[in-house]
Automatic annotation (TrEMBL):
The gene is LOC103502384. This is Tryptophan aminotransferase-related protein 2-like. The keyword Oxidoreductase does not apply. The keyword Signal applies. GO terms for biological process: amino acid metabolic process. The lineage of its organism: Eukaryota, Viridiplantae, Streptophyta, Embryophyta, Tracheophyta. It comes from the Eukaryota. It comes from Cucumis melo.
Length: 438
């Protein structure tokens, strides 16, 4: 009897354990199923959120966004100059700009100890000289090339290099309004004590040394700029980020003491964070290099190598355009896109009747060997509606985000609009602007 009872006890125990195990498995499956449903639901919500913002939208949407309720409600963000327009050119190029960097490469701080700019990759310097020769937009002979993490770091390096180190007062930094909105913030960011923002160059009247930032073509209005102050004791920094054939006629090679360039707006590779300066004075170049050394101990070699490859492909496309490998040059493609975008914008502005845009006189472009107009990377739009004083707020009410004139040192009737976003975003902007009526 005892043996039987013990056997029955084991059987009952085993049955209970099996029952508990099956219940646990069943609950786990329900939880897993619920989790999958939650993930799928979350993914759909995330996708909706993702598509709601133009700066993050997918360029490969199955249908035009303007045909969906989501597209109609979408906020068009053209406040910044993110050059995603250029994806149209680079995606079909395949592996032409692909590079492979082995794990052992680019490990040292030093790139070329024989070069004044010791952290600059020789191949990048070579391609900079080549692209300027191909385009004809800058003199490189007799210049020292300084590489920086975008032209923003190079501007700060230039201000550091050009400011008197032993003066009791900071040197004034000016630029003609409308000026690039980041100039005041960058100049006064660290309150260095050696330079300070002094505003509009057109009204600067102090009898003292100054640094004038000359942006040409200008950001935001697109006009070719020349120095405004023209007094003794002045030092010039030329920001030529937009002096490329897709934006403006290349009339002559820039021959300045200090010029700044960047791959961001020349080729569209803003994410590389690579720019360069062409500097005539060796001592100024040395001080700029010292600033970058103290600031970031040089510049990413990987970015330089990739930028060198991109510039090489651009130059190849210009020299071999019309062949089997390059049907058209990068700048021909970019110029065509910009021409069409400005045509659409001017038509939309005309239909609306509430806005106006600058007019640019044609000029001979040596690169294209033709008389061409200017088609800037940004549109400088003015709201002519009488009862609208703040154009930025007015357009925001129509789900169009721009940057208002107050950031550029002028009135709030003006806004800056990026012309460089993806095609879907730009077309939605044109459609929406055309529908605004008085």
């Amino acid at each position: 009897m005892g043996l039987v009872s013990l056997r029955n006890f084991f059987v009952l125990s085993l049955a209970l354990n099996v029952s508990l195990i099956l219940r646990a498995i069943n609950q786990n499956e329900k939880l897993h199923s619920g989790a999958l449903m939650a993930v799928e639901k979350g993914a759909k919500v995330a996708q909706m959120t993702f598509l709601s913002f133009p700066s993050l939208s997918s360029p490969s949407a199955a249908a035009p966004e303007t045909q969906t309720p989501l597209g109609r409600e979408r906020v068009v963000n053209l406040d910044h100059g993110d050059p995603t327009m250029y994806e149209q050119y680079w995606k079909p190029m395949g592996d032409k700009t692909t590079i492979v960097i082995p794990g052992w490469q680019s490990m040292s701080y030093f790139s070329d100890v024989t070069n004044l700019c010791w952290f600059m990759e020789p191949e990048f310097a070579k391609q900079i000289v080549r692209i300027h020769k191909v385009v004809g937009n800058a003199v490189t002979e007799g210049r020292h090339i300084v590489v920086g993490t975008g032209s923003s770091q190079l501007l700060l390096a230039a201000l550091y290099a050009l400011s008197p180190q032993d003066s009791s007062n900071p040197i004034s930094v000016v630029s003609a309004a409308p000026y690039y909105s980041s100039y005041p913030l960058m100049t006064d960011c660290v309150k260095s004590g050696i330079h300070k923002w002094a505003g509009d160059a057109k009204i600067f009247d102090k009898d003292e040394p100054y640094i004038e930032l000359v942006t040409s073509p200008n950001n935001p209005d697109g006009f070719v700029r020349h120095p405004m102050v023209n007094r003794t004791g002045g030092i010039l920094v030329h920001d030529l980020a937009y002096y490329w054939p897709q934006y403006t006629p290349i009339s002559t090679p820039a021959d300045n003491d200090l010029s700044l360039f960047t791959v961001s707006k020349s080729t569209g590779h803003a994410g590389l964070r690579i720019g360069w300066a062409l500097v005539k004075d060796v001592e100024v170049a040395k001080r700029m290099i010292k600033f970058i050394e103290l600031n970031t101990i040089g510049v990413s070699k990987d970015s330089q190598l990739r930028a060198a490859k991109v510039l090489e492909v651009v130059s190849d496309s210009c020299e071999q355009a019309g062949g089997s490998e390059y049907t058209e040059s990068f700048f021909h493609f970019s110029h065509t896109v910009m021409t069409e975008r400005w045509r659409l914008l001017r038509e939309a502005v005309k239909r609306s009747g509430l806005f106006s845009l600058p007019n640019f006189s044609p000029a001979h472009c040596n690169f294209f060997d033709n008389n061409l107009g200017t088609q800037p990377a940004f549109a400088w739009l003015k709201c002519d509606k009488d009862n609208v004083e703040d154009c930025e707020s007015f357009l925001r009410g129509h789900k169009i985000l721009t940057r208002g004139g107050k950031h550029f040192g002028v009135g709030s009737k003006y806004v800056r609009i990026s012309m460089l976003d993806r095609e879907q975003t730009y077309n939605l902007f044109i459609e929406r602007l055309s529908q605004i009526r008085s």
